[in-house]
Amino acid sequence: GTVAGIAVAWLTPHAAHAQPGAGRIVGTVTDAARAVPLANVGVGLVGQPGGARTDSAGRYVIGNVAPGRYVVRAQLIGFGARQDTVVVTAGQAATANFALAQTSVTLDQVVVVGYGTQRRSDLTGAVTTVQPNVERQPVTSVEQTLQGTAPGVQVTQASAAPGGGMSIRIRGGSSVNGSNEPLYVIDGFPVENDANTASPGDGGRSATAPANPLAAINPNDIASIEILKDASATAIYGARGANGVVLITTKRGRDSRPRINLDTYTGSQAVAKRYELLNATEFAQFANTWATNQGLAAPYANPASFGVGTDWQDLIFRTAPIYNAQLGVTGGGSGQNATRYALSGGVFQQEGVVKGSDFRRLSLRGNVDQAVGSRLRLGSNVLLSRVNSSQVPTDGSLNAGAGAVGAALQYAPLMSVTRADGSYTLMSTDFPSELQAVGIPLSNVPNPVATALAVQDALYDTRILANASGEYTLLQGLRFRTTVGTDLSYRGRDTYYPRNTLQGFSQGGRAIRSRVDNTSFLNENTLSFDRTFGEAHALSTVVGYTRQSLNSVRGDARNSNFVSDITGFESIGAGSQAGGPTVASGRTRWTLASYLGRVNYTLLDRYLFSVTGRRDGSSRFGAENRWGFFPAAAVGWRLSEEPFVRDIPRLSNLKLRASYGVVGNPSISPYQSLTRLAPQQYTFNGTLAPGYQPFAIGNPELSWESTRQLDVGLDLGLFDGRVELVADRYRKRTDDLLLQTALPSEVGYSSAFVNAGSVENKGIELGLTLRVFEPAQPGRGFGWTSTVNYARNRNRVLDLGPGVMRIFAASQTLSDIGATSSVVEVGQPIGAFYGYRTAGLFRDSTTLLAWRAKTRLETGTPGLGNVQYVDVNGDGVINALDRTIIGDPNPDYTVGWQNSFSLFGFELAALIDGAFGNQVLNLNNIRLGGASPSTNVLRERVVDAWSPENPDGRWQRIGAGTGQQGQDITQELLEDGSYWRLRTVTLSRELPASLLRGRGFGARLYVTGQNLFTRTDYSGFNPDVSSLGVGNLNRGVDVGSYPLARTYTFGVNVTY
Amino acid sequence: CNDEAFLTEVPYDFVGPENFYATADDARAALAGVYATSVSSTGDNYYGRNFVMLVEFLTEMQTPYLSATNERSLVDNYTFTPAHSYIYSTWQSAYQAINRANSVIDRVPAIPMDTTLRSRLVAEAKFLRALHYFNLVRMFGGVPLRTKETTTLDSLQQPRASAQAVYAQIVTDLKDAIRVLPAQRTYTGPDIGRASRGAAKTLLAKAYLQRAGTGVTPNVGVDSALALLQDVKATEGYALVANYASLFDMTNEVNSEVIFDVQCSRSNGVGCRLSNQVAPRMSNYGSGQNGSFTAEEPFFLEFAANDRRLATTWQLSFTNKAGATITYGPTTNTANGAYGADTPYMAKFLDRLSVTAGNDEPNYIILRYADNLLMEAEAINELQGPTAAAYAAINAVRTRAGLADLTAGLAKAAFKDSVFAQRRLELSMEGPHGYFDSQRNWAWAKARIEANFARGVQWLTLPAAQRVRQSRWPKFATGTTAVPVLTDKYRLLPIPTQARDLNPQLEQNPGW
To answer: What is the secondary structure of A415-440 as a DSSP string?
Structure first.
């Protein structure tokens, strides 16, 4: 009280007593376009103290003005300032009326924040708003709309398959073992988007990027997305705020007649880039070279006789249609007892560019807001959706587990799809005998066509997200609100590997049916108070209590050895697997109880203070550390409201912000704090003996990860808002990481969850909007708006607990390769690539002999044209101890650049985005850059192989022999993943009103191209890849990834 | 609203130690969990595959028949490193079993139940703990000695104990077990297959012999081993079965000869896992046809034509999916094209009816009476030279195999080598014994293994035309001319790199 009181007294010098002989200035301020009064407009005297604000009728009075000539200036955020000259005479009122023209919507925009809304101009935290525009970017899932449009938000497509998993990092990843995905809040319902726990089974594949649970939500239903980034903004979500929060608000009804909106588009997708591989003739020549280099007779006398052979990429890729239609109606009234509503239904269908993959979604959404009298408001939201998708095995494996794409790259081009009897060929049995005869090691890659067409892998997701709320105004500005909500999802996955596929062959067909039923309940109760006290003080507070729970029930049945493939997964019982079908079930539940509060106080409309806190209790933590408190505070200073600044011409907005707070991350599976025993049977003399084994060791002290974040920001508007800049600089430090620490195996457990270690993220974000030309009226004249965003984040592991410098976890080991490709190491970014350092090839015998004199391989001896390993520890032998950090999957910076031009009713919008400085581990090249014709290889690998005749060749000598040890992860496999991409281009045209005159119709036509052009040095399909899933430990790895599609769509939007 | 009740975690699909270890059923289940570590709960990592492959491929008996860089060939060629995954997986699995045994030994004594049964369950756990420590000490020498269940995350890193200390713990546990466990014949019905007094005595004798033979305590304990073996012979009632082949007959798994085995059933989660490794490639046998175990030709030729073990040990022919009968052997190798090896595949522990991996019926034999006889011959020879009793012991095994008696009048060293050669022929693939036997007669084993290498390398240098099949010796990379040399460091396996990463207190074995 006292401090604030003093501040008020000091900051309000003009609130002095009236002096005799003084006059007044009065007037009204209106909106120039709508001719309605504008409230809260600041009116002041240029070069003088004193001023006033308009009331709700737009009127203002500046009293106690000495007689004289004054320049009066009226300004309001979002409007161009106006000024006028008046002469004040003693005891009289001089009049100055203003009509302000709107310049920018952004500052006056209402921004959804946790448990409330704020005007953008009042924000003290770092919040980015994105309005999805389905016309500009026809996307499957909502996260894709954030790609390139929000600074500090890195969106990675774990799989480019329709409905494939997405991974989002807001200001970098901070957790090693916990989730790094932000908290999604959909119409107030918090959803922890953990793709792994939401995933119904693995479909019998060991490594696969999980499907995206948010794909159940139709992007077309979304009105706006707010991304909360700093601690001040996210602390209201306390323990779940550390990865940032994405608030999704769906479209609601407004005060209008019923408005009908029909949006439909259709288009086609094709693989944007293919690998250049050997054709059959070239492959046979390659085999000849290989054999000759081994001192063996060439197996093929006439390679040309094979012609081009089989182009496996051709056989599994296709041009695929995409289709969307959405019909909605919104409307409602105003005043007491008014009803507002929004209803819509949508159909979305996408076939994948890899045969056998598709995604279909039916969605229905409805919300109703009902006012009951003037004090009570009731509201409800219901979102129903059903997704059916077919997953073709793709990412994540190289050998027998390879998906259709990885197999298509590796499968020998001189082999045919089927044998004479019509059954599918296999590399392991049908590899040409001429090649087997010279001892080429057999590959066990499955038949790509069989994998794409014969494997059935269907995903289902039925999701209901519903909530109902009631809000009662107790007093003016004091409202109580209660919400009950639920998020129900019932997901299933049905998989069948018929006997003509590699997996199904040895098992007589293999069927899997998995289900997961998640039910989440939420109850929130908040009391909010919003009030202005006099002209100087505005207070906005909220306190609340919430509870949420998530109950997850799973079932999984598997069988093999089927008499026929006809029933597939539909009749699990039809199989006769030895010992009967494999069945499993499980159930988990977590609960969260929270107390939250926030006070926003605005003094004189220019000094902004915000204090936020949340106390969360989570069942997921040890009894000793169940509760956590997460506070944050922020200040903002709207310099542009200061008398000494507001006269600066062309400066329309200037705000400084600073925030600091602590937020948490609880994202681990339930029960990790408890010691657990698992059932494990044994048989004595054929009789089952039920057994239990300790399998996980508990940790009653287990608790949250806590992230402290400091953010300083600047909002700048120039030229009446035609130039807007938002800049932030932040530093996040995450302590008490939830680490799945590997334990010395002698203790009988391989790992345990502990709180240890620290990670730091720091960076800057810039968002610049330029309204270069504004059209005189919407739809007429030339307009050009350009938005640029830039973000740089540095991620560094500071500590991993006492004595630990580096963490290896089993999940980081690629089963096919038996090597660890990423590690967490102190001083390095999380998930840095780890392997052997190499120094190119041995190109001359001097280098080779010098190397050999000092160094040896554990197996074999390198020759000319082999890879030169670096003896990192200098012990004279190349072995596992020489592995070191060799690269970083995180970009140095990311950029997005959006342009929109309008002329004569046409609008052209283009989004370019890029990431720079990251590396991709291209594991495909273990095979495609291989030294022997066990699999197909890159054409370039043969053309530009080292040989005495081509001493500058990029690739190892063909038949390299002992050059590379086994399947090491080496620097040779790392590539620069920097790219920039023309992500979307849209040309749209509003049909002229003359065509639709008087009928109330509006119509817009648009054509869109996506991923039209990518500039990158990366040799694979797409540098923006993460085949091994969305975790932090194995980012940026490419193994048989689903190729990126180039998409063209044409759409119509009709409104009535 | 009561937050604490709302936030208390309710386990639904698992049990925790707080509500377990309360009844006799819990005690039995906890012990079954220890037994299960030997195969099902560790999958391929231990007896299911990796441990057996390590011990077998480190001999001159079998080869995985794969390219030089394959992880199994690395073992077969002695080109593996301390980071080899099989070594670490065996280390991990043995310690998992030890921790589980520790939990039974720590917690079961407090359970109110029949005290006789309770003592027996604890004694079984001690037998199992000794077995797993014995596997570790044979592989690595001294290892960290943990004899209490791990219940907290404090002080997890322990240095290696000496090999003597590990053996001392094994001896203590087995002596405890011998005092409590019943004779094997008293187990009936669903208790058949549990650790028995005879098994504990046999394992203790084996431990004494190994401890002396590998120089941990030179010459000490061989007399104790002999006394135990003679005690088993006199009091436990074991005998050789008449027909060697019937030992591997799945319908004859309860017999007079098998002393302890991993019990398996053709059912999910409780089956053995070796069948799909043993089954010949492209055969129609079993759950998979990896053909991972094939005979090294010189060892195969050591089986006399009239040795009754020949057809039980090796898959001399099989009928493939197309109905063709493929015959193996060094003279018929051209016919075998796509079927991989030129020499026969291992035949023991093949389950022709197994469909999915880990569902094999045949029990994996760890201890059997023929081994006792051969150990007896070895022990007598060590203590007294090749006496008549030593000859009688080895000849009992030879006679059952259809072989003539061992040449009389051998010198002590020659007799020892004969016993070891007989162990190879009699016990291949079982135990496992191969590499561990080599450790007790290193010079003999080393010479055999190096000769085998030399033969393979020499073959590689032949002109291509003279090689029947390019992949005949795929375990060596083309161009290899140097014969690998077995230095003495190979008498122990290296402490796994992965274990040393996690516990820097673990010192590496000499030479590694």
So the answer is: S-SB-TTSPBP-HHHHS-HHHHHTTP
